[in-house]
Amino acid sequence: MRTPSPTHPGRAPRTPYGGGQDLVPETAFEGMAFEGQDFGGQSSDLVAFRGCDLGRVSFANGTLSRVEFGDSVLEACDLANARWERAHLAGARFSGCRLVGLDLTGALLRRCRLEACNASLACFRDASLREVRFQDCDLRGSSFQGADLRGVSFAGCDLAECQLSFAKLGGADLRGARIEGLRVRIEDLKGLIVDPVQAAYLAGLMGLRILP
């Protein structure tokens, strides 16, 4: 029986997932609703979720290489310490998710939104992000080393102790974010959008003194 997602009444009806707890490689789930499943600790490859709604689903401590999430919504899901290297996330929304220690090395993120997520110590190393918005996320100690962050917004986020060295930051918007302890090279700052307080802080990192 097809029932609409209770949390997204504006979306088309989703088919409740009634399968097992194993993620078989090269499996694609389309237009399905997942609620409370525990996929944690599994290793798989090329699993795809397209047009799916996921609520309180766990992928913690698992390895899903080249996993795909297309036009899907994840709410209150647990991805802590999961390895999603070379993931492809397009049109995905993460809301209130636990992303502590999530490894997205080399991932592709397109048109994604992450809201009120705990992504401290996450790894976005060498990832490519386009039209991505982080809103009110805890990203303390995360690594974006070598990532393409051009045009990415970090409104209201905690970026303390984040690693941004060698990242492409042109058009990235840090206004309103906490940036104490940010690790970044001077040459990486070109085109970065910051507020006046952040500008003064970054000037201090470069050894500049701002006097009245």
From TrEMBL:
One Pfam match: Pentapeptide_4
Signal peptide: none
InterPro entries: 5peptide_repeat, Pentapeptide-BTB/POZ_domain
Region of interest (Disordered), residue spans: 1-21
Alphabetical list of PANTHER family matching this protein: BTB_POZ DOMAIN-CONTAINING PROTEIN KCTD9
Protein name (database record): Pentapeptide repeat-containing protein
